[in-house]
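A protein record in our archive is deliberately plain, so that people and models can read it alike. The record that follows is passed on verbatim for readers who wish to inspect the format.
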Amino acid sequence: MRLWMFGVCCFLAWAGMSVWNQGDRIAAKAEQLSEMEAKLKQVQEQNEAYKLEVTRLNDSEYIEQKIRKDYHYTRDGETMFYTPKPKQ
């Protein structure tokens, strides 16, 4: 009888530890899932921005503005002036 009770106690201890460990794993996976969902949302927003940029790059006026701004290009006969930024 004592041997049977010892076996039942050991089984219950093992089952309790298994349940406890699974709860920790579930909490860790839930946290990982929320992080991955946040990252997915960020990547989807970035993807939408890239799609918009690709659409805008089909417009010749946008390309001209981008080249002028990013690469400081001017048309023939134009002069570009640089103004120094004020020191803070």
About this structure: The chain has a mean pLDDT of 89. Residues 2-71 form one domain.
